[in-house]
Batch of 2 targets.
Target 1
Amino acid sequence: MSLEPQELDDLTSKIGRKPTPTELQIVAAEWSEHCSYKSSKIHLKMLPMKGPLVISEKGYDSGVLDVGDGYVITAHIESHNHPSAVEPYGGAATGVGGVIRDILSTGTRPIAILDGLRFGDIEKDLQARWLFKNAVTGIADYGNCLGIPTIGGEVEFDECYSNYALVDVAAIGFGKKKDLIKNHANRGDLVVLLGGSTGRDGIGGSQFASDSLESEDRSAVQIPDPFIEKLIIETILEARNQNLINAMKDLGGGGLSCAVSETADALSIGIEMDVDKVHTRESDMSPDEIMVSESQERMLIITNNEKLKKLEKICNKFHVKCSVIGHVTSDSMMHVKKGKKTCANLPTTVVANAHLLDRPSKKPSYLENIEQEKKLSPISNYSKMMMRLLSSPNIASKIWIYGQYDHEVGIRTVIKPGKDASVLRLDNGKFLAAKIDGNPKHCYINPREGAIGCFEEACRNVVCTGAKPIGMLDHLQFGNPENPEIFWTFLESLKGLTDFAKYFEIPCVGGKVSLYNETPSGPIKPTPLIGILGLIEKKPLHSQKITSGDYLVIIGETKNELGGSEYFEYIHKFVGGKCPIVNFKESKTNMNAVLDVIGKDFLKAVHDCSKGGLAVAVSELCMINQIGCDVSLEKVPGPKLDADRTLFSESHSRYLVVLDKKNLKKLEEYLRKNKVSYNLIGQFGGENIRFSSGHKPIIDLRVDKAQKTWFNSLKELVHG
Amino acid sequence: MTIFNVHVTIENKSGISDPEGETILNDLVLKGTHSTITGIKTAKMLKFTIKEKDKKSAKHKIQEICDELRIYNPMVSKVTIDVFDS
Amino acid sequence: MTIFNVHVTIENKSGISDPEGETILNDLVLKGTHSTITGIKTAKMLKFTIKEKDKKSAKHKIQEICDELRIYNPMVSKVTIDVFDS
Amino acid sequence: MKVGIIVFPGSNCDRDMYHVLTDVFKLKAEYFWHEKGLPKNIDAIILPGGFSYGDRLRSGAIAAHSPIINDVRKMAEKGIPILGVCNGFQILVEAGLLPGALLKNTSLNFMCKWTNLIVENNKTPFTNKLKLHQKIPIPIANGEGRYYVDDDTLKKLKRTNQIVFRYSEVVNGSTDRIAGVCNEDGNVVGMMPHPERATESEINPIDNKPSSLIFESLIKTIGVKN
Ligand SMILES: Nc1ncnc2c1ncn2[C@@H]1O[C@H](COP(=O)(O)OP(=O)(O)O)[C@@H](O)[C@H]1O
Ligand SMILES: [Mg+2]
């Protein structure tokens, strides 16, 4: 690990002397992109972070939202991309562990996990398949063992991730507002390191995450230990109940270096610590190694002499090791000793605040002609093509994934994965919906509109359950920020998200930036990922079984927006065209309309149109309910389009609504009055999914055959 | 062609922790009265039956399969391949 | 007292299916690339480090632990114990 | 009447079970940490699901050596109703309180899904309000849930009416589709599926009645008076 030459100069001038080797290691860890956000920090400020429900407290690693009646939820998102790309099982598993500790550090119990996954083309690429399979097992083994349900997520395969992997994990916590840890510390308080022992594994991890992936020689492998993590969770929550924790921080990237310096800086205190007091796995570790080791499953706690005994008692009960490694001072210095000898003594503000960069940006040249469409080769048999689309890894059912995750433990999961968002019940009688979404294919073609689209999609998904979006998490994943063209795509995405968040008054409650995501053949496509939390005051919309005769109504307009669609990319192998653009006003009108109508309690099901467009969304309703449907494409609202465009355009702000015939009047009355664009486009019944255009049949599929293909193809692909 | 038994042992590289071994040692073995045990490491074994012309080519073949099927990840684990007459 | 390494191999008794071994085998056989492989069985290994006066008592001690602490489930598995000088 | 819920390091369905016993069925319940002993005045014992000791070695294998298991054994001999769910079942099997073994699912994966049980023995303290061959929709969530017994034991289990639940379809490769068994006396029952995840209509999208009867059977057995 090392600092850039100008950073070394900067450090030297700030402390007025040559740094010691240990100091260099500490600062290099903390000033890495991963820990310091040096490329992104000045820009992230544009995101709206406040709102009537947001509770902000110094030193929190997760966002906190007040959900009423004295309860809060907490949320955070993290990624573990570089480690997962070389060791998918351990990388993904420790990714879960890391974000769970963020939730824990506010003093709330983690109650749900969501995962966002990206790999290369698993149809052709064995390496991608291996990464996918093992990352899913890693998440399953870790989350299942903790007894925290993984309630949903998303996954996408794209050649831009060949030989690479993005593994994002979001977590949600729940607790009483009065139990939140109010981070504070006084001189003389004790600094305690609790959890697994510190070893050589994961040394240099955060630096690793800030480099491009090239060399094979990585010591950054981390071995997951979900059993210790589970014990830590119970230990901490019991300690919280007994009010034994003054301040707390999880150890993540940068290990002790970051945890100690950031805690001290946030609380405006100093910390003096002794590396000899740290419980280590190997006896001969150097101070530098101890300070930057990223061994998992560790927490830093500030407590005091009185409380220590009780804390130790709890640790003993759970067989969790804890060591007093230092104490709080008032000099705002981070003083690291080995026995009597000083190894590092640095002002915490210097360590915790890297020099922030304002990197140059420039519109990428590839975008010049990206919207131009090529001539598509004609499709001779749409039904056959549709079957192929249903079996494509990006469209096929994700049951092979969420079926391996215990999504019910905790018995809160009222709406389970498999549809749009999942929903949890809360102790105050309300419900929380959550979903994460991304779409690098759209974001590649238009980084700004693509990012907004991910945001809207995640909102749509929670809205389909009857939830109002109350908070957003963003995870911004891009290539090398030193490349101005890449940095431009980062800024564009960020600006788009900011605009949408402000317009809809959805505060950003947490986020993460992951840069330097480069594969051997270049940067990944821009991959922002958006998580949305939605609150339901009364009750969620539980889909009812669709029966013969039920009506299908679409809300929202279908436009000529096929750029980055599955239809273009998977069927026509064409990357380009116009990416779907969210019209904010229309988006809001439709969202509010759907929420209002759900509240009236006469809908049977609501599903949004996303990947694969109208054709896939309708088919999903049919396949899940094992019933056919007749859809007339000419009735679909929007500009007049060719049948294939109406079928597969991925325009946003569209919802499919299913209802009993007798309720149509009520629905229409409401929608007309509120000037919502909608139409009755089909009726359920029979055994075939049929799309026709002016009585000309376009697609005709047997539901059972479609269902079998859609349901099993991912599993068959993975198991060969 | 002769039949050989090939044992492939997969274990974490040294320096990489083995939480399962530690739990078995601390929470099971040392809780009893078995203090002469000082360490436990877990490993996974695959026992192949293979028809090859000699031991060398059997071993070679198995190594190839382990790499190709990614039976282990060289980042974390090492393998030992032992060939026996059947 | 001497330090010994004792390897305990736990595997299914014959007659009890081993889906994992079968899956790996099918991956190979179905793909038709490695037809010289005729069987794969998986096993789990625990490598004990033990201080005992000689090999015999090391083996004896480990056998005792395996039985008493049910390191293996005799209903489905069998163990093989091999002692090595460390 | 008090139900003891035994908590091992890594148990993770203990709180769910507590909620269902107390909030849904209005029973008194108390947690017991595995290193402690059990008091005499316990009327029933439940070993909840989870990953005791991280499922290391084999699921349930290490927890089966916990000190509290000695007390559980004594209670079992006294005829006190004991239910092991999922990991609790695995522990009871490893402790020798129930016959058989639980092996890795044939899919080799963890499986979380809803399935149907068929009641095969409605004479146990946990099934006496169910009808013979009644169907119960219920979720499973396990990686090592494949119940195994050899042919002789299977014959014996059938003869002594120790098979309590079967899956209605092949789920994970269990011998004879067995999902739950009891000891010879019938007071110790183990099952892989999670009844506590299926008793509330909010959570159970299908039909909440049948699995509630598992708890109502217990109430019938031990009485409700507090
Ligand atoms: N990686 C994953 N982990 C868990 N659940 C997933 C994952 N990917 C998809 N799912 C689940 O599958 C369902 C469909 O997901 P997705 O196709 O992303 O839906 P949508 O198009 O509505 O965003 C959702 O319930 C989602 O939570
Ligand atoms: Mg959706």
Target 2
Amino acid sequence: MLLTHSGEYVQLLTPRGERVDAPGFDPWVADIGSAELRSLYEDMLISRRLDTEATALQRQGEIGLWPPLLGQEAAQVGSAHALRQSDFVFGSYRENAVAYCRGVDLTTMISVWRGNANAGWNPYDISMAAPAIIIGAQTLHAVGYAMGCDFDASDDISIAYFGDGATSQGDVNEAMVFAASYAAPVIFFCQNNQYAISEPVGVQATKPIADRAPGFGIPSIRVDGNDVLAVFAATAIAADRARSGNGPTFIEAVTYRMGPHTTSDDPTRYRSDDELAEWRAKDPLDRVERYLTRIGALDDTETARISEHSDTVARELRAAIRALRPPEPLSFFDNVFAEPNRHLARQRSQHEAYLASFDGGELS
Amino acid sequence: MLLTHSGEYVQLLTPRGERVDAPGFDPWVADIGSAELRSLYEDMLISRRLDTEATALQRQGEIGLWPPLLGQEAAQVGSAHALRQSDFVFGSYRENAVAYCRGVDLTTMISVWRGNANAGWNPYDISMAAPAIIIGAQTLHAVGYAMGCDFDASDDISIAYFGDGATSQGDVNEAMVFAASYAAPVIFFCQNNQYAISEPVGVQATKPIADRAPGFGIPSIRVDGNDVLAVFAATAIAADRARSGNGPTFIEAVTYRMGPHTTSDDPTRYRSDDELAEWRAKDPLDRVERYLTRIGALDDTETARISEHSDTVARELRAAIRALRPPEPLSFFDNVFAEPNRHLARQRSQHEAYLASFDGGELS
Amino acid sequence: MTEQATAGAVRTLTLSKSINEGLRRALTDDDKVVVMGEDIGELGGVFRVTDGLKAEFGPQRVIDTPLAEAGIIGTAVGLAYRGYRPVCEIQFDGFIYPGFDQIVAQVAKLHARTNGDVRMPITIRVPFGGGIGSVEHHSESPEAYFAHTAGLRVVTCSNPQDAYSMLREAIASDDPVLFFEPKRRYWTKGEVDLEHVPDQSMERARVLTSGTDITLVAYGPLVPTALDAAAAASEDGISVEVIDLRSLQPVDFDAVAASVRVTGRLIVTHEAQRFGGMGAEISATITERCFEFLESAPERVTGFDTPYPPAAFEDHFLPDMDRILDAVDRSMGRRNSLSEWRFDG
Amino acid sequence: MTEQATAGAVRTLTLSKSINEGLRRALTDDDKVVVMGEDIGELGGVFRVTDGLKAEFGPQRVIDTPLAEAGIIGTAVGLAYRGYRPVCEIQFDGFIYPGFDQIVAQVAKLHARTNGDVRMPITIRVPFGGGIGSVEHHSESPEAYFAHTAGLRVVTCSNPQDAYSMLREAIASDDPVLFFEPKRRYWTKGEVDLEHVPDQSMERARVLTSGTDITLVAYGPLVPTALDAAAAASEDGISVEVIDLRSLQPVDFDAVAASVRVTGRLIVTHEAQRFGGMGAEISATITERCFEFLESAPERVTGFDTPYPPAAFEDHFLPDMDRILDAVDRSMGRRNSLSEWRFDG
Ligand SMILES: Cc1ncc(C[n+]2csc(CCOP(=O)(O)OP(=O)(O)O)c2C)c(N)n1
Ligand SMILES: Cc1ncc(C[n+]2csc(CCOP(=O)(O)OP(=O)(O)O)c2C)c(N)n1
Ligand SMILES: [Mg+2]
Ligand SMILES: [Mg+2]
């Protein structure tokens, strides 16, 4: 049932930017011509720019925290591009490149990290759930959503993004049990970025993570997560399986978190410069740039255009942050319940009265 | 890493009582001569007798509930005999044949089902933990215990017994993660008795349960759980691996719960007579009896002795139940904490004063 | 709805059958309702509450799930994201904890987390409470954990009509509801109007007997016990107003306060452990809101701060009529066995 | 222990460093103590509380675990069965729920379940509370869930010396202890006597300032806030007795009751949601035990019954000195913004 065998690893584009054959996978990228690949590249580059920008904004105190995705651009952009807009994404805090590909409004995205909201965007606007911070919880949500797609006889599917660390959580394993039991049209997309905060993946698993799923009755694919084509192909295969009633697929995208866990983290405490250098050589953007350049699909005009586009997006992000206003102080009472709730309405009114008792509204 | 391959299934003794070769497994039963096999048979027969007796006692209102193990005698007795007395057992509510093999005092065992105690026996008396009713929880305990054995540089090991249904619980999967991560000397012993109350195993798993563990890095063995020799061999292999520092092993013992889930259950609502008949033909005791008879190791004298022994044990069980006295009413306050607790001492005294206020102690 | 239809729809049912009918009606009326849990299909649930539903509505509406409570709640969250209204069954009170994280960190918070964009119309049915002589984990009363959790509604019923009507209202609610079923009352019979239209009354407490001396607040399984105690007290000349709380989050404090302003005395009873239980909140809030009206300190008659004990002890653990009457005495200022305990600190 | 040794062992430490020293001491003194959790080894924990311990005691004493809280607690149970004394770290308050079942159904109950034969000397360390501007699930106060659970001890510290001494006592206890660490006070400095011998005082509350008008009960992160409020009130001529509760299960009701019998007034403050929080239990019990002494209804100054909000709102959610002073007013019978709310029911 393994679509790849234990230890194998699918690669279509080498770190040096050479396109290599991957029988079984090649047909799934047949439609990706140079224009399409350039567009993948562009989204990866902009994702990186957004990420760098957000990291800088955190250093400047504009936002409180940021979980960089540096190094994981191919995994996120490649998989996001293989989905339909009507498919539903369940991710963690780190899937900001996926959100970008799905057209998230930058203001709503960044408001979370400014501390204005727990989930900025409306999930139904971009068919992407609120980020899950409780590790692994979202995988069950994805399975339930997929069961709903199936009940609706729709060919929409769902995808769960999660990390290597998450695979240790009961929830993720239960998600696989349920997905297999109901043959739910869901993709389990694990970004194995080698670390759960400070813990190397070896603490969580003694075998390749992709080996886990087949025992649950879920075929799995292990891909070079820094190879956007391999990721695209694997996700397209999984999506096709789900849509055609063949149930769940598990993808392990082998990648590397090149930055800290979040802007609060100091990775020098637990990993070496050598290791980082080794992975830098496998950078997901470099290889596409090399390949595109070699085939003549990335000339100076294009490079300039993409660079300008990324400047624009970065400017938009900064503008988005400047545009953020402190939220209405008592609005945290408002969406606890969907229906009117007397208990909470009373507490809100009390606090309002309390605030009003201050001259000039000292606290508000 | 699979010690058996997917779908395979180890059998040493066929339902007709023929000893068949099982390369790799045979050496592990080399020491089981006819006397030893007869003793396994005797324990199985007594287990069945105890089980039947307890079921009858429930029907007579002497105990409140009983979870029959009818049909699972080979799985429990075969595995229990492959352990040392200093190994530690973590089981569910159904492992009463295991408890018998470990020398449990029948009074303490039955007191639970009378409603006098939550766990009758002292776990340290028979190196067997209190039965776990929360499905799967005990598997983590077994792993922790095994980690402790390892830290102590002891060659004691632990074994976790659990059902097919339990494999869906997060805890059981986390137990495999931890066991693999620390190479803990633990045996995962799954009695796949085909049902979790009314749910056939297909609701929990779309592949053989033994296939689950290898993905976690834990080799697994799938055996005919109604074949006491196969079970013994598999457990002996697993115990040897654990003791010699090779970490966890997973055993799936394929068996059948021939009775109801508990005495409260009505299995006719969810399974057919035909199915039951099919499994009856694979009865774990019959085949040993046939084999022993054929090789002349079970003559009339032996049969009579064993039958008498089982009568004695059944009598002991009845006597144990009759010996049970209602516990001291307020003793449920006493062992909540190990150290003196003022809060609870106060509540206890209050309730004592309250009871004393009744003429003749109406409530006590 | 004509009078005839109403009349025709009134049937005498057990509490468990009322829930069965409530589920049937919800499944019939709204095809987004799905019922899910362990053993609820073929078997019809260990209490037969879902009997016949799978045969009637099929395996996509009445779903036997794998044995994993986090899985049940977590997939229900996903179904709710997709527009479904899942009704999850937790087989027994003591088995809800593996699903605790999904309930408190996801179900309870998702509406707030998404600024109101995502609704969680999930009903979680939990047979709860003791008194059935069962083994460990089968007799617990975990309601206070959920009532303390912001974002959840928590209700319980004490009679067949409420079981039916409140369940329908819970399923119709756009907010998540923990629906606690008093399992030892599953076989209580009563008249049930199957045409009763959910009327948003679920969060209102109900005064069952009016009285002037003491307000006695009960819910779920102890409501009949409270009524017995009130009857016994009245023979003794003490007039007890029994309130069936029904909703535990929010609590209808207005109703309780209105009563206490008349009686000046409050007793709260529940099976759950006393420390940090519902009784503490009701006592504290009513003291805040009715301090000047109180003649004596609110009393709590509850389970003890031990784990629910083995069956042989449950008569001691569970509040009964005598323990309530004992509190009635104290509340009325009559000295009894426990009066001295007040002043030992 | 000579005076000199004592003197030599007094150092000025942050609260987090005190815990680090407490762990070091426990690991040194008893080789059955093991420390386990996520990122506690190489990294030294996300708050550096376990900094240096793995290097000092090795990976079998200071164990980086897989990312699974049920796994951490569940394996600790097994280690306890084997005679170990595990000290588990839950990385943040909001991540304790996946381990909830193992805590309430196993850790809390195993001693009772086994008639006292098996001990569960497990300490579960939980950085808790808000005020650090963090993202969701990183600022919660789940202590009431555990205080309501029979079989657990629950404590929290408010200063470096208590952090050190109480942690050592918790680890030495043969009962399971939830040890809540006030994370926003991790950087508070204070003198710590590292030779202080655990003396079973963990469950005793401590009177920090004596007063005659109001008893103000606080714990963990709000103790300094309570002291500020008391100081401000005293400028206004109101004498506030501040009690640091320290133990939340059991609660030292004797100490609180003794104080309220003098002051006649009680205010309890905590960050946790109000409904069913510690304040409810303290208010209810003190009302029971001190009814005749109360001049006014006990007040609660707490978080609201919403999920802990995003950082932009936390100043509103968290009790502060002003909100405590507002309650002081009400308690003293001065009318203010909220007085009318008492009577709206
Ligand atoms: C239930 C839970 N436990 C602990 C944490 C704290 N935590 C946040 S991220 C993280 C590591 C996650 O690792 P991984 O799943 O590999 O995802 P990555 O951060 O590498 O993308 C941890 C332990 C959490 N958020 N939720
Ligand atoms: C956490 C939890 N959920 C539900 C139950 C109710 N329950 C008791 S036994 C059982 C089925 C167990 O099936 P399996 O693991 O196959 O063991 P078996 O009874 O067949 O030995 C269920 C659902 C429980 N005890 N614990
Ligand atoms: Mg990772
Ligand atoms: Mg089974």
